[in-house]
Amino acid sequence: MTKAVPIDPLKLIEAARDLADHQSGQGRPRPVHLRRAVSTAYYALFHRISRDAAEQLLPGGSKLDQLKLARTFGHKALKDNCAQIAGRQGKTHKHVKTLIEGLRSTPIEGVAASFCDLQEARHRADYDHLAPISKPMAIGHIEDARKAIQTLEETPVADRRALFAVLAIGTRLT
User: Fold this and answer.
1) pTM over 0.90
2) Fewer Cβ neighbours under 10 Å: the N or C end of the chain?
3) pLDDT tens digits for range 139-168
4) Read out DSSP for 33-67?
5) How many CA atoms lie within 13 A of 22 on its CB side?
6) What is the C-alpha to C-alpha distance for residues 108 and 161, in angstroms, rounded to an integer?
């Protein structure tokens, strides 16, 4: 029987790089590999944010319970909240306005902007049959995801907590 292993965002970054570097020669890597690389880069950041949020919201919980909680974060809700933090979305709900405005002057703003950009790139890669995806473009998205993960990990705890609070309650307010 295969042992269950949680999704590791850094392993997703490695997988995205492998896809973007798949084979060599004329016409390589194939467009399908580049599309999957872009999608995988987005998922690396999505899983880092959702797992970190779950660990913060359930610090005394078991790893299994934290992983289950991480599954409750939706892609659209996360993007909507990140768009507000990045200043890309209209009016902010009054209950989170102070938190969101406080995050705009921190590294979290850049992480939120990267999340929005990566989700849009993933949608193009996964759903737009005619979207051209070049190797440099795919590698750029992978690097953006890697940098956003690193920034999130290096951001002061207070700012991370504020982000996770917005994500936890923001779903109910958007």
Assistant:
1) yes
2) N
3) 999 999 999 999 999 999 999 999 999 998
4) HHHHHHHHHHHHHHHHHHHHHHHHHSTTS-HHHHH
5) 17
6) 11
